[in-house]
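User: Predict the structure for this protein chain, please.
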Amino acid sequence: MKTLSTLVVLVVVLAAATSASRKCKYNRQDKWSECENGKQTATKIIKEGSDKTCPQKKVKTRICVAGEKCKYEKNDWSECNEATSLQTRTMNLKTGSERCAPVKTIKRKCKKACKYQKGNWSECDPATKKMTRTLTLIQGSDQCPPNKTRLRRCRKGKSRKKACKYNRGPWSQCDPVTNKMQRTMTLKRGDRDACDPIKKVTRQCRRRAALSAARIHTKCKYEFADWQQCDLRTNTMTRTMNLVQGDPEKCAPTKELKRKCRKPCKFRKGGWSACDPTTHLMTRMDTLIKGDNMFCSKKRQITKKCKKGKRKCQYDIGEWSECDTSTNKRTRVKKLKKGDLNVCKPEIAMTKSCSRPNGKERCFFGKWGEYLPCMNGVMTKARELIQGGTECERKAVKTKACS
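Assistant: Here is the predicted structure, written as structure tokens:
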């Protein structure tokens, strides 16, 4: 038990020591001192904000290493090796320990390499299936060979390069009559006896080029008029453009542009009035809250048609009467089911011809019934067929998928 308690105490002491050492932070150490008695020292000073229990200075010691740095004596660069285009230099050890290499060799690319002018590739040799090219010296020392020969395999499908190479000139404008473009090509490389010095190439104009060429003579130019006053309802301004140049048959005589007003007027919207039963219109009065009084009116009135939902007039569908033999028409009267009598009409009468313009019977139906229970994933409902043939029977039944 005593041994166990002693171990616990040691662990606690070590943990406290490590936690205390973590709080001790020091600046970078000074340079190592000169070697004395085979040892060197360097000092560290504590950082600000560290624990006060930490020592203010910390001294590090190490064994001196004689000749730690390796210094070499540089010799001259060798002559350029034409095969590798490299130069070498040998460096002998000047000062340093036994760990330093006695000799070092450095390589670099030659500063003054041999430059050659490339000749044309020869024709393909059918026996070796290779092509040759001669390189002629144009810059370099006496050690550079005056000529070099290069070999390579012939290209597939081509025994040699194209003999004639040309510089391509720009394409001309599209000719609207022939719908063609032309450009001139000047000889760049090749035998002048076998190659044409100048070639002309012609091709069909592209669709866009043809259209632009056709439009050159049909440009429409317009004269801009002043912008009109701002429409307060739409907050837009309009301007008219009059034709001054162009074919009147292809150019519109006038054009109209629209844009938003530069100085918009902001209004507070008022409430809509009740629907007028005679005009079926509603009005609203808006008040200016932001904008120039010289440009914007203090109040504006906006009018719009009444919505169907505002009228709230619901009618019974009614039933078609018998066909009148004298007028060949049927009538149906819709009676008001829901709505204000001051706004809604109590009855609405509808008349329809019993026959179509081609003489055939017109379809007349009764009211729709309710959907029957679902059967085979489908629900059906039907309405009474008052008049009509087989074509009308199809319209008397409606189906939908079961939900």
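Residues 2-23 form the longest helix (22 residues).
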